[in-house]
Write a structure and sequence with these properties.
The chain has 404 residues and is an alpha/beta fold. The protein has 18 helices and 13 strands. The chain has three domains: 216 residues, Rossmann fold (3-Layer(aba) Sandwich); 75 residues, Tyrosyl-Transfer RNA Synthetase (Orthogonal Bundle); 74 residues, Roll (Structural Genomics Hypothetical 15.5 Kd Protein In mrcA-pckA Intergenic Region, Chain A), CATH 3.10.290.10. It is 47% helix and 15% strand. The strands form three sheets. It has a six-stranded mixed sheet with strand order 1-6-5-2-3-4, sandwiched between helices. A hairpin with a 3-residue loop joins strand 12 and strand 13. Helix 13 runs parallel beside helix 15. The model has no long low-confidence stretch (mean pLDDT 90).
Length: 404
């Protein structure tokens, strides 16, 4: 099998990467792989703790896809066993474990969404319960003997919790060992992870050395900063953009990011060539508004296609810039001579999940009728024989209310 030159491979692999440990070993592995015509085994583990993926998850998935495109063998581990433990990375408290049913349902959704980034036809998908679940208690004791408590406490999140007298459950110590055993079982050449996974990845390397295997190279990617410009992208912070987000919402949410994230998002979330990245870096400084629209279009096109991206851009221009009703606005009819509470109308449209959410939006000024913000919870609309009202809920929900 032929591969691009080692130099070209390194250029692709190092794009957006924070750290490669040790980089010289990666060079050696690539050289040997090219010489022998044998793909490297690239490992990425994911615990299906949530059913949905966002653009933050795509950063590491895209790196695995790049290895696929370079001709290497990609292995996606569904951590159906490690999810029972709960990854303590970045946690200041013990993460609750999931049930086997929850894990299975999440895994199915995860794979469906990951397929929007990865080439599933060239992907090896494995479940670590197939080997970890078969270990005896004696096997676990032997595995536990390969790492000291002192070494475990060196881990940043454990050391902070220990110093703050916050509880650390014994089973959490087993997580890095279990993830490391995955590397031993799969004989991985490279393992991918976020910067919060560095300790776990190095444990895998350590266990491979003890097993007399060539140790894996550890490649760390940054944690994507979310739309708020402060925290890592997470549903907990409500600063995320889902991979399955509809085109209009995806386009609109990208436009909300702070200007200083434009270049970073272009680098980590798109396939824009290196030369074009330099162009967008300058454009982000000189014309951030236009650069942000370019970014929104590229990302929306990646997940929904060019036509959907163009429609999303037109929708934004029509509804936000020109403040017009979109062509696909919901149309609701009401009997002439009746009065309707606005809060009930909104809840019935499905624009909000409950009256409580509707009230919060109204308090925040997120509801308007004919471009007039409505904050009165008891506000009513009176429908005469020729009434027509334009309703806007939030930034992207529109309806035309008319008598009929």
């Amino acid at each position: 099998m032929s591969f691009p030159s080692v130099e070209k491979q390194l250029e692709v692999i190092k794009r957006g990467t924070v750290e490669i440990l040790p980089e010289e070993e990666l060079v050696g592995k690539l050289q040997k792989s090219t010489k022998d015509g044998k793909p490297l085994r690239i490992k990425l583990g994911c615990d299906p703790t949530r059913p949905d993926l966002h653009l933050g998850h795509s950063v590491i998935l895209r790196k695995l896809r790049q290895f696929q495109d370079l001709g290497h063998h990609a292995i996606l581990i569904i951590g159906d066993f490690t999810a029972l433990i709960g990854d303590p990375s970045g946690q200041n408290k013990t993460r609750p474990s999931l049930s086997a049913d929850e894990i299975r349902k999440n895994a199915n959704t995860y794979l469906e969404q990951a397929g929007k980034v990865l080439d599933l036809d060239k992907l090896e998908i494995v479940y670590n319960a197939d080997w970890l679940g078969k270990m005896s208690f004696e096997d676990v004791i032997r595995l536990s003997s390969k790492l000291t408590v002192a070494r475990m406490i060196e881990r940043d999140d454990f050391s902070k919790r220990y110093q703050n007298n916050e509880p650390i459950s014994l089973h959490e110590f087993l997580y890095p060992l279990a993830q490391g055993q995955d590397s031993v079982h799969l004989k991985s050449d490279v393992e991918l992870g976020g910067t919060d996974q560095k300790f776990n990845l190095l444990v895998g390397r350590h266990l491979q050395q003890l097993d007399k295997q060539p140790p894996q190279v550890c490649l760390m990617m940054p944690l994507l900063v979310g739309t708020d410009g402060t925290h890592k992208m997470s549903k907990s912070y409500d600063n995320y953009i889902g991979i399955d987000e509809n085109p209009n919402d995806m386009y609109g949410k990208v436009l909300r990011i702070p200007d200083n994230l434009i270049y970073n998002w272009f680098e980590l979330l798109t396939d824009v060539e290196v030369e074009k990245l330099a162009f967008y870096k300058k454009k982000a400084e000189s014309d951030p508004r236009d650069a942000k629209h370019d970014l929104a279009f590229v990302i929306t096109e990646m997940y929904h296609g060019k036509t959907a991206a163009e429609e999303a851009r037109n929708h934004f221009e029509q509804t936000v810039i020109k403040k017009e009703m979109p062509e696909d606005a919901l149309v609701l009819s009401f009997e002439p001579g009746t009065k309707q509470r606005l809060i009930d109308i909104i809840s019935n449209t499905g624009f909000t999940s409950s009256n409580g959410e509707t009230k919060r939006l109204m308090k925040q000024g997120g509801v308007s009728v004919n471009d007039e913000k409505i904050t009165d919870m008891n506000f009513e609309l009176t429908f005469t024989s020729e009434s027509e009202f334009q309703l806007k809920v939030g930034k992207r929900n529109f309806a035309i209310l008319r008598s009929e």
